[in-house]
Please model this.
Amino acid sequence: MDLVIKNGIVVSGAGEYRADVGVKDGRIAVIDGGGASGGGLRGVETVDASGLYVLPGAVDAHTHLQMPFGGTVSADSYEAGTRAAVCGGVTTVFDYAIQRKGKGIVRTVEERRALAEPGACADIAFHCAITDLGEGCALLDEFPKAADYGVSSFKCFMVYKKEGMMIDDGMLMRIMEKAGEAGILTNVHAENPDAIDARIAAFIASGKTSPWYHYLSRPEFVEAEAVKRAVHWAKALGAKLYIVHLACKEGVEEVARAKAEGYAVFAETCPQYLEFTSDVYKREDGRNFVCSPPMKGAESREALWRAVKAGVIDTVATDHCPFMQAEKDWGRDDFTKIPNGCAGIENLYPYMLSAANTGRISFSQAVRLCAETPAKLFGCPSKGSVTVGKDADIVLYDRARDFTVSVKNMHSDYDQTIWEGKPLKGYPVKTFLRGKLVYDNGNYVGVPGQGRYIKRSESGCL
Ligand code: URP
Ligand code: ZN
Ligand code: ZN
Model:
């Protein structure tokens, strides 16, 4: 073996067991749980994982790295974002390549891939966010080619009308119909754009400009309406649907109903919706928490936790889209000028594992939500679990280590985080990417550029 990880406790989506893990040529070659042949694995390198959990590297299915947005570009480059990712135990990063008017899907992803690959510290995959179907909806004909290129999920923004990124219902229906034929999963950002724009206009006209009005311009019912609409179209068209960053109770209930009826409706939420409520927008630094959809009330937060535990939420991902303090400050006196988005890529796995370590969910649930399910759902068969034949993307996790998040101990390029001061119980101590050590006890120790593009297979199957 090239590497043997000895004496650890392997966690899978189904349970935990003590085993030695042997790695050869970047893949998991042997898992030796003892028994008759036990204890005999020999490696060029051996790591003693006594007292540690051996987890699959997480898959962050939702990030926006160096994305032009909100009058600037999100603060983490591909290198910084993926560096931070592996330091938080995320070994596969999904980025959203935003297709623009007149540009093809494969061309859009090729361009982002060219930006990402030279500095990638984690493996990287792309969803494409479709914003324009072109003359005569010509882009629909490119769907099979996109799937062949490994892009088997598209995002539709049901919002961002003024930003020119919105997909209307007619386009959404066309995309859903065609996507299914090509093995492509349709992801939606569900909020009602007209309701938002009308409410923003009314608030601004009456001088209501603090971040609290960001929340009030897109409250629970604004998101719920769009979730219900998207689910309606998915049911009517027999299409598979993935709702990104689900944040409201009514939306959770809608997804639960669709699942119970047997529809292929999947949902993602993010740590920020599990941790914070809309009260953050009343804080002096409320602008730093501005993202869309916004954090909701306590009832929604509790509903999300219940849904996480019950399996109604399939994945937890970050929507990592950080901005610098100076950029967030553009909106000090006008919430509409605040670039939307928050950091999270390095906090996802530690946050969910801390929830497991403190008994809120099980470790197996954390692994399912952050690694196994996103890998399966988005067509990455070599990722997401510590199993023979998979890539040796492995995280060693110390349950006994306490950690407090600060911008000072993160590995990104941003200079403020909504997670500042958050105490976590347990923390990753080592991350291996395809068998190579890339994070060690607080330090990035990999080589930028060692992350690879992942050509995905069909999405939407669990
Ligand atoms: O506020 C957010 N979420 N920014 C990133 C873009 C998006 O809507 O996912
Ligand atoms: Zn979104
Ligand atoms: Zn997003």
Q: What stands out?
A: Residues 3-55+385-444 form a domain with the Urease, subunit C; domain 1 fold (CATH 2.30.40.10). The longest strand covers residues 394-404.
